[in-house]
Amino acid sequence: MQLIDGKAVATQIKKEIAEEVERIIAEGGKRPHLAAILVGHDGGSETYVANKVKSCEECGFTSTLIRYEADITEEELLKKVEELNNDPEVDGFIVQLPLPRHIDEQKVTEAIDYRKDVDGFHPINVGRLSIGLPCFLSATPNGIMELLARYNIDTKGKKCVVLGRSNIVGKPMANLMMQKSTPGDATVTVCHSHTENIAEECRQADIIIAALGQPHFVKADMVKEGAVVIDVGTTRVPDPTRKSGFRLCGDVDFENVAPKCSYITPVPGGVGPMTIVSLMKNTLLAGKREIYK
Ligand code: BQF
Fold it and tell me: pTM (2 decimals)?
């Protein structure tokens, strides 16, 4: 069993990005600038945005954090989105999800200029991904592809089971894995809450990508000997022995599953750090106008 060290790969890539930024600056170019909008005080969202701001510093990017209370109106938020769309200083921006219930996430996502949509959630970027055109790629699936590439994991013709069908992870992940590319060229099955006999689907898989948000969903008896297991879960579970009061729990019963795997990602330190790094890559691409105009 080989552990996939997402944290180490992420650190390496951030170093590569920082070097490229310094080259850009030396040649008289512009420092990439990421803005993030955070609404409310959800503990997870606070941590994620803090991770993004810190990574911007490590990459040599400019970052701007815009905060609102949870009771901000949809109208006010849309106004800020429009402002960032028109701000020539900002290369790309994100609106941290989830948003409070009274705000329509889809409406906000569609209000973002697709050329600054470094999360890759705008329908234009989603559509371009689905037909294999250059676009901003959803960060978590792109981070997973980068891990598969850097560990030289063979995906061509392999059976890949994606657990979860979210717009942010499951659907774009399935799309990337079935594309004509390396990694890619896999035979992909997407499983969800209505799938009959998920355990049997998983047992057929050479690669399992677990993105359901259900702690320890994938058990040892669901995994084929020698399978590759990618754990996207980051559920916070109460843990009084930690000073934070919680720990991160993956969708995979790591302790019992790991001995059967050829490769497996841990939680924390697996997919999570790669999600952040993918956002940094998109921001660099936005700064260089490499995808659009
Ligand atoms: C790690 C996210 C659910 C809903 C919205 C490093 C992150 C997490 C874990 C992180 C996530 C999850 C992010 C680790 C960003 C990943 O060391 O294991 C980094 O910051 N993430 C998000 O922005 O929104 C989410 C999960």
Answer: 0.98
